[in-house]
Amino acid sequence: MNIATADSRLSEAEESGETIKDSAFMREALALAREAWAAGEVPVGAVVVKDGLIVGRGFNAPISGHDPSAHAEIRALRDAAQRLGNYRLAGCTLYVTIEPCAMCAGAIMHARIARLVYGAPDAKTGACGSVVDLFAEAKLNHHATVESGLLAGECGGLLSEFFAERRVQQKERRGED
Ligand SMILES: [Zn+2]
Predict the structure, then answer these.
(1) What is the pTM of this model?
(2) How far apart are CA 127 and CA 136, in angstroms?
(3) 59 and which of 36, 50, 54, 155 could share a cystine (Cβ 3.0–4.6 Å)?
(4) Residue 99 Cα to ligand 1 middle (Å)
(5) Cα dihedral value 152, 158, 160, 165, nearest 10
(6) Which value, in Å, is the radius of gyration of the alpha carbons in the chain?
């Protein structure tokens, strides 16, 4: 009885430690999303983590890179694969502020990411349940478990603020004409 209680307390402590770590990595992804905003890009950020260390970072940059595939997740996967010298990122976790699109979900599967953690859902392009759920498709061979909602308010809020600011700027520009 006592042992069982001690065990359950231990697992609770481990779980909360895991949550703290997850939040810390998502905050790194949020910092990258702010870098995207500073560069005039839609603010999305991502990090790849292996054995508790960040091995890849990326923020959204399709406009500046003249590259439709330069989403935060793709750039973080490329960064991690280069650093690890392996196109397969087995055992890695990808943290991203916004629900991945179909392209990024595909790349996550090809990279064999073990765990995907995203913040806010994306009603327009989300491919992890919002528009489609590619990870629920049994015919697609993937290795990732998917978790959502981590710091969702901050992750989604950043995006809403960005678009609100852009609408104001566009209105001002129209006013000047
Ligand atoms: Zn994407």
Answers:
(1) 0.89
(2) 10
(3) 36
(4) 8
(5) 170
(6) 18
Question: What distance in angstroms lies between residue 110's CA and the mean position of ligand 1's atoms?
Answer: 14
> Which among 95, 112, 103 has a CA at the least distance from the CA of 57?
95
Ranges assigned E (strand) in 9-160: 45-50, 53-59, 93-98, 115-120, 145-148
Q: What is the pLDDT along the chain (177 residues), one digit of tens a residue?
A: 444 444 445 455 556 777 889 999 999 999 999 999 999 999 999 999 999 999 999 999 999 999 999 999 999 999 999 999 999 999 999 999 999 999 999 999 999 999 999 999 999 999 999 999 999 998 987 789 999 999 999 999 999 999 999 999 999 988 865
CA–CA separation, 128 and 141 (whole Å): 15
Annotation marks residue 176 as catalytic: no
**Count of C-beta atoms within a 10 Å radius of residue 102:** 14
Distance 16 CA to ligand 1 centre (A): 30
Which of 12, 18, 73, 99 does the annotation list as catalytic?
Answer: 73
